[in-house]
Amino acid sequence: MKNAQIEELLKSTIKSKKVVNGYIFSGSGQTKNYEYAKLFAKMILCLEPDDGYCDKCKSCLMFNDDNHPDYYEINKDSTESIKIDEIREMQNKIIEKPITSNKKVYVINNAEKMTIEAQNCLLKTLEEPPEFITIILVSNNENTILTTIKSRCAKVVFTEENKKEFTEEEKQRYDELKRIFGNVDKYLSIDLLGKIDVLYKDKDNILENLNFINMIFIEKAKQDFKYLDYIDYVEETKRKLENNGNFDMSIDYLILKIWE
Fold first, then answer.
1. pLDDT in tens, 10-54
2. Which among 7, 56, 137, 138 would be 20 to 30 A from 113, CA to CA?
3. End-to-end CA, the chain
């Protein structure tokens, strides 16, 4: 997904009150990932969110002044290892209820720098987090992050925005997918399975096709928040495929979840 579309997705997440406890922001560049993590944190903490954040409430004003008591950062300006003591210190504070906002947000920058001990310590918090907590891991290389942590976090992937227009082939694929997934609610399961045969046949372009599908769902989510769940199903399918999951089973999972 393009970054502007991800920003729309984050706004829709706020509006629908579907913020989860853990996120991983990864992809094209550490600085960009970090900036979007802060933007999302501001949205989460805003007291009167409308279009993401109001920029007028006490929370937004404190956030703009870098003086928000419910916002914390770990490893903001450093590329050194994040050790277990830093995560333990976070854990000691994390159980304290918010002061200004209804939520608390922790951003762990350069999260791939966490030692194994620190990651295992963080895992305990992600397994049973306080309901008012959101932890955002910012990483340029999530390969060093434990699978058990990644499985407990929603993944948001940023890309370099150097391709402004579809190629003719991409446009044809996007249009075909839009005809199917833009009207997905109209199909019974057997109809849907028949129509999405294109996904099974086009294995070489599956990740890009899944990104196209989420572009379609993001647009629909602006009118109906249930499509945020569909977006999650697509992202989970992408994770399965990226981790060498069985292709047919991964696509079957996606179609089953959408149909349910």
1. 888 888 888 999 999 987 666 678 888 999 999 999 999 877 889
2. 7
3. 25
Q: For strand 22-27 and strand 154-158, is the pairing parallel, antiparallel, or unpaired?
A: parallel
Q: Which of 217, 226, 218, 222 is nearest to 180 (CA)?
A: 217
**Residue 222 clears pLDDT 60, i.e. is over it:** yes
Residue range 3-158 forms a domain whose CATH class is alpha beta
Q: pTM for the full model? A: 0.70
Interval 145-179: pLDDT, tens: 998 998 889 888 776 554 456 788 888 888 888 88
Compute, in degrees rounded to 10, the torsion defined by CA atoms 223, 229, 232, 238.
-90
Digit-coded pLDDT (tens) for 93-106: 999 999 999 999 99
Look at the block and give the residue holding tokens 């602006």: 222
Q: What is the mean pLDDT of the chain?
A: 84
